[in-house]
Amino acid sequence: MSVLDALESGPASLAQLVQITGLARPTAHRLAVALERHRMVTRDSQGRFVLGPRLGELSIATGEDRLLAVASPVLVQLRDLTGESAQLYRRQGDVRVCVAASERTSGLRDTVPVGSELPMNAGSAAQVLLAWEDPDRIRRSLVGARFTAASLAQVRRRRWAQSVAEREQGVASVSAPVSGPGGRVIAAVSVSGPIERLTRSPGRMHSQAILSAAEKISESLHSVEGH
C-alpha cells in the first residue's frame, strides 16, 4: 500500500520510491515488480513506476452497481418516452457490453439482452464510447470500422451519435455519453429500433430524449460522488 500511495502523486523512479516510502531499496524494488506483475503498477516511457490499469478496472467494478442503480429508472423513462428499447453499454476491451436494458413490451423491437457483447466497430453506442478516447486508440479502432474519424468528431461536437443499419440490417439507434466523476465518458445510453419507426435520421427524432437521459444519469452519479 505504501508503494501505491507513493505513486498516487505521479510517476516515481526506484530511487524516488525508496525515498518516499522509507523502504529498503531491494524491498521497494521487489514490491513494485510484484505489483507490476498484477498490473497494479506499470512503467512509463522513461521506465518510472506509475499506477497501473488494474486499479481503473477495479474502480469501474465498484462503480458498476451505483451506475446500474441510477440508470435503471432512467432507461424505463426513456423507453416510455420514445416507445423504443433503451440500453446502457460499457466498453470492455474490444467489445461493448449491454449492462442494462429496458425493452419495448410489444411489436417489432430491437432486443439486446443484458450481458450481450457487441462490436466496437459499428453502431451509435460504439461511436460514443470511442469518440472521447485518446487519438492513438481512436486511430487503431477505426481500422475496419463502419464509421470514420470525421463522424467521431461530429459526435464530440453535438454529444450524440446515430447509426442506420450499421451494426444490423433494418435497425437504427441513437446514443449519448454518460460521464462519471471527473467528466470521463464511462458508458453510452441508447435507444434502438426498426428503421421504419426511427427513420433514416433517428437523431432528429430522439437526440433530445437521449441527451437528457444521459445527463440525468451523469448528474446522479456526480451528486452521489459529491456526498
From TrEMBL:
Highest taxon, organism lineage: Bacteria
Pfam families named in the record: HTH_IclR, IclR_C
Domain HTH iclR-type: 1-53
UniProt xrefs under InterPro entries: GAF-like_dom_sf, HTH_MetabolicPath_Reg, Tscrpt_reg_IclR_C, Tscrpt_reg_IclR_N, WH-like_DNA-bd_sf, WH_DNA-bd_sf
Domain IclR-ED: 54-223
Annotated SUPFAM superfamilies: GAF domain-like, Winged helix' DNA-binding domain
GO biological process: negative regulation of DNA-templated transcription
Molecular function GO terms recorded: DNA binding; DNA-binding transcription factor activity
Record keywords, A-Z: DNA-binding, Transcription, Transcription regulation
Protein name in the entry: Transcriptional regulator, IclR family
UniProt source species: Nocardiopsis flavescens
